[in-house]
Design goal:
Helix content: 25-40%
Shape: globular
Largest sheet: 10 strands, mixed
CATH topology: Rossmann fold
Number of strands: 10
Bound molecules: alpha-D-glucopyranuronic acid
Length: about 425
């Protein structure tokens, strides 16, 4: 029996009952994946087919509105205020091999304002050199990416740690360099690529009441079909891209947006909406990211809405245990990036994020590249570990757990260098 959305929404607030629902205990058995039919990215809602590349923008807009209405919520199209950029630091870095900059991006609407700090590290080169660039989101603060004492701590409100103590979390001095393993900045700079990052909590704290402290507080309160925090983080990435577009040393046509896990979801949503990104990278993004929702393998729509009620728009809750009714699935999120480039990565042991579901989404998005005369993933068999595949849609799966490793970065660097 199916429960109505209202019934589920009511009881999702009651933990013991929610846990008794199907879809709460994760399924990790391929044989128990439900039969499903995916919406076709190349067929309009009225049943007519997209026959040529020139017709793609129309279908693309239709898919984008469906994701806005049912999944991530609508993002405001303009800022009813002002945006300022303040370069707070510009110093020689990495023994003169790079330049480190910190830019405060401030958005002001009437009497309120919010800011977030962009860390930008560029290889040292002649002023007229333009760099390919990774624009990334990080979890714990820009200072966690590198041990240098030059990188400022986040100044915005940070969610407290499990014990409720902000001072003990990694957003403080304690976290400096804590995440170096995930960010091989020297290798990136050594490849002639610039690196930029923002702490996502700076844009909006990742908590159910984070909205008051983040950028969404500058706009009208969101309704059922308006943006959640994933929308806010993606919006912040686009505001950082606005800044990068003012820097003559950034090659605007070769910027990749990258994020891991929930930030991989935000990165896909940013890249789906904002066509300035030449390459979109999803590292282990899973449910609500690159993985097909209809497979309900690992994390489900019910589970993600229950655990993170602030991430998506409220309408998304009507698909709790009801994925077949979703007018879209995540392969269409990937398709929104066409004919630009996308790189999806999974980790073998990261079953919660459904590696096979991430690969299949890449497969089912690929006809849109084919329509453009380009190779998408180019195969329907999932590759073994450490054998990246694909053309404009790249995919790799590596050994190990949910994480970002040097192996992943080697693939992303190759993908960014492949942008002509
Ligand atoms: C949780 C969540 C995932 C998310 C991950 C992360 O595991 O369920 O959806 O991707 O956190 O962001 O690390």
């Amino acid at each position: 029996m199916r429960h109505s959305a209202a019934f589920i929404a009511l009881f999702a607030a009651v933990p013991w009952f929610a846990k008794a629902q199907p879809g709460f205990t994760p399924n990790y058995d391929e044989a128990a994946v439900p039969q499903y039919q995916l919406p076709d990215p190349l067929v309009y809602e009225n049943g007519s087919a997209v026959a040529k590349a020139g017709d793609w923008p129309g279908r693309r807009s239709e898919i984008l509105s469906l994701f806005e209405k049912h999944v991530y919520g609508r993002t405001p199209s303009h800022i009813p205020g002002t945006v300022t950029y303040e370069k707070r630091k510009s110093i020689s870095f990495m023994d003169g091999k790079a330049v480190l900059e910190e830019i405060r991006i401030r958005i002001s609407v009437k009497e309120k304002s919010r800011f977030f700090d962009l860390l930008l590290i560029k290889p040292k080169a002649a002023e007229q050199t333009k760099f390919r660039t990774f624009l990334t989101l990080n979890f714990l603060g820009n200072h966690t990416l590198h041990p240098s004492p030059e990188i400022s701590l986040p100044e915005s409100w940070q969610p407290p740690n499990k014990e409720g103590i902000v001072e003990q979390n990694r957003a403080t001095e304690k976290g400096r360099g804590h995440r170096v393993a995930r960010w091989p900045i020297e290798t990136i700079i050594g490849s002639g690529i610039a690196f930029a990052s923002i702490c996502y909590n700076d844009i909006e704290p990742d908590a159910p009441d984070g909205i008051d402290k983040g950028v969404r507080a500058l706009f009208d309160p969101p309704g059922e079909g308006d943006w959640g925090s994933l929308g806010a983080w993606a919006w912040g990435v686009s505001r950082a891209m606005d800044y990068l577009a003012t820097d003559p040393q950034i090659d605007q046509k070769r910027v990749a947006v990258m994020g891991h896990s929930r930030l991989g979801k935000a990165s896909l949503w940013a890249g789906a909406q904002d066509q300035r990104f030449a390459l979109v990278i999803s590292n282990n993004s899973g449910c609500g990211g690159a993985a097909l929702s209809r497979r309900a393998f690992g994390e489900t729509v019910l589970r993600i809405n229950h655990n993170f009620p602030h991430w998506f728009c409220k309408n998304f809750r009507s698909y709790n245990n009801n994925e077949a009714k979703l007018p879209v699935d995540q392969h269409q999120l990937i398709a929104l990036i066409a004919p630009r480039r996308v790189h999806i990565a999974s980790a073998k042991e990261d079953l919660w994020a459904d590696p096979r579901g991430e690969f299949l989404a890449a497969v089912h998005a690929s006809p849109v590249w084919k329509l453009h005369g380009l190779t998408g993933i180019g195969q329907s068999e999932m590759p073994p570990i450490h054998q990246p595949v694909g053309g404009h849609v790249r995919y790799h799966i590596r050994a190990g757990v949910h994480d970002v490793t040097d192996y992943d970065w080697d693939q992303y660097i190759a993908s960014l260098l492949a942008v002509p």
